Amino acid sequence: MRVLTRRLVAVAAVAATLVAAAPGAAQAHGKSYVKVGYFTQWGIYGRGFPLAKVQNSGAAAKLTHLNYAFGPVTAAGVCDSADPWADWGTSFSDANSVDGVADVAGQPLAGNLHQLAELKAKNPKLRVLISLGGWTGSAYFSDAALTDASRKKLVSSCIDLWIKGNLPDKEPGIAKGIFDGIDLDWEWPGSDGNAGNVIRAEDRRNFTLLAAEFRAQLDKLSKRKHYDLTAFLPASPAKIDAGFEGHKIFKYLDFGTVQGYDFHGSWELRANQQSSIFVPKGAPDNPDFSADNAINAWTRVGAPKSKLVLGLPYYSQGWTGITSGGNGRFATATGPAVGVFANGTEDYKTVKNLPGFTLYRDWRAGNSWLFDGTTFWTYDDPAQMVQKTFYIRAKGLGGAMMWSLDGDDDNASLTKAISAGLK
Asked: What Enzyme Commission number(s) does the record list for this chain (predicted)?
């Protein structure tokens, strides 16, 4: 780790200027990296973030994969839509449509799915995946994965709805061809996730069997087209051990995206890092979370580095009520900082413009934050993202995942920085 740390520190001081130069350096390795951006179904509402912004900002052209989040697994053990109005019902104006043409009343397919089709038409190499589960949509994964019959039932329903495009009360196959695969976001097999989730000790084995069933049914669809199968994976070694057979699951997955954020947050009363590459010197927790610790935890259980994709946050974690002075890091706080959509978190596009804050960086750890003497935001800006792409390349990983695209600014600065480093 010391050698890798020295290499990252050596390039970090000029990271901001290397955004333009990074493509040539990456190409010298002869490796193709995946760049996965999550688009949230609900972002079209209060956040005012339609897929047109992914296209018009230039972000779509910089991605290899777009994950559409989320499709829940129901108590009946099948796939369904969490919001049919957003998925295929609502209309978009010309200004909010990917192709610049307004939806019209009565068209066969509308909503985000129609916009995804338009996005793919403009970006033919972009692969779009439906993400199943998520934090609030994983309650019944354990039941659905429990038996061979229940696994077959779940997988066939997911493929019928999302891959074959057989939407309720629509012409059969109306949405066929929009999705190029499935992303499993079971949070978490064998351990706690959202309150009320069904959890079993058998989840660990059943996750492998579920992945195998998805792979088998996807492969039967077509001999000419490969459908991707990916999974969102935890950073915590305890959750890895409880829920995943790391040496087996990658036989079925094209790649897995490792959570590289939420290492600390405003549920704690100490300002800290949420997405550092390495554990910062002087960190009060031992052991502690970091991107490198998460990746190493996966390789120790047999995951191939080339199939591990590091997750990167487009949002900050924040604390307030700090009175101890200094740069604020590791200081005691009274609670979460005020955020636009939720206290304790804030989009990059908002945090970068906050007045009165001083920017601090720890290049050795790969961590940056803002502090105004009272309020503390830990976040990643384009320079920090470039440093993380150097880590991804030096570590031999498969690429980067971004949660989520609506947190970036109107110029897609974070996405473009990541793409430049991994081109």
From this structure: 3.2.1.14
Cis peptide upstream of residue 355 (ω within 30 degrees of 0): no
Q: Give me 16's structure tokens.
A: 């901001």
Summarised one tens digit per residue, pLDDT across range 348-389 is 999 999 999 999 999 999 999 999 999 999 999 999 999 999
In the chain, the percentage of residues whose pLDDT exceeds 90 is 92
Backbone angles phi, psi at 167, to 5 degrees: -85, 150
Instruction: Give the count of beta carbons closer than 10 Å to the beta carbon of residue 251.
Output: 11
Residues belonging to the active site: 187
Identity of the amino acid at 281? K
If you search the block for the tokens 């989320």, which residue do you land on?
A: 70
CA dihedral 259, 61, 347, 296 (to 10 degrees): 20
Over residues 38-70, the pLDDT tens digits come to 999 999 999 999 999 999 999 999 999 999 999
Q: Using CA atoms, how far apart are residues 398 and 33, in angstroms rounded to an integer?
A: 6
pLDDT tens profile 294-327 = 999 999 999 999 999 999 999 999 999 999 999 9
Residue 156: asked if its preceding bond is cis (omega within 30°), the reply is no
Long-range contacts, stretch 202-207, CB < 8 angstroms, 24+ apart: 202/146, 203/141, 203/142, 203/145, 203/242, 203/243, 204/242, 204/243, 204/244, 204/245, 205/245, 206/142, 206/145, 206/146, 206/151, 207/145, 207/243, 207/244, 207/245, 207/249
- The residue type of 161 is L
Tell whether the model's pLDDT for residue 5 goes beyond 70. no
What's the CA gap between 242 and 316, in Å, rounded? 28
Contact 245, 389 (CB under 8 A): no
- The pTM (predicted TM-score) of the whole model is 0.95
Beta bridge partners of 228: 181
Q: State the Cα angle at 307 between 213 and 3, rounded to 5°.
A: 155
